[in-house]
Task: structure prediction
Amino acid sequence: MKYRFAEMIWHEIRDASQAGRIAVLPVATYEDHGPHLPVDTDVVLCTGICERAVQRIPDQAVLVPPVAHGYSPHHMDFHGTLTITWDTFIRYVKDVCCSLAHHGFERILIVNGHGSNASPLDLAARLTVLEYEGRIHCASVSHWDLRRAKDKGAQLRSSDYGGTSHAGEYETSLYLALKPELVEMDRAVDERSPMSPSFRTDLLAGTHPEGSAARLVPYWSSQTGSGVMGDATSATKQKGEAWLEAAVSGLVDLVAELKAQPILPRRDQH
Ligand SMILES: [Zn+2]
Result:
């Protein structure tokens, strides 16, 4: 069964939407990922996870071609970053989602691969729901927030809090699992955030145990010289393979959960 939207003929897409398959849309960005990883890291990781997950459940989902460019203005001090203005980005993703809804997809799942895309993608998903007056579900999730990825992350990580942030142990391990020939591990570093606990991030652990989950996003170059925020030196291909499998199975679970989530009608009380 075909699962790649781009390879389908139009009537196959009609049949896929009528069968209630979920449209899975990967969204990432191109930006610096330290001295050891290519600028396509977020794209490779996000599309790699989505490809493997949808391939596993072709009767339940369709893999939409990715939106590769994202929102990354705070990384522009590093060469290689390509950023899309926030409102252009939100409208672009919303337009893709509304096109899918127009063709009958009632459930859309945006899968994010870049931290600063999370807030605009949340809005793109919500604006799509509003555009269709609640007749569809459009959700967004970052791959490191998938439950199984978090569980496996806690078991497998060697670094302490902050080690699995940008280009750190998690992303480097995943890249090693997907395209090891492009990783220059001899250049990998362990560089940490200078921020106080409430403003620190860790992809797998979330909020610092002594912090308050506030959001403050200064220019990346003010916080790190290498571009890394985390411990890239503790990354291994073995951990990456385990984390890849955890993210893929976590995404498969989430697709099933979204598929089973009823779309309840509005009850406007006016
Ligand atoms: Zn990244």
About this structure: The chain has a mean pLDDT of 97. The longest strand covers residues 22-27.
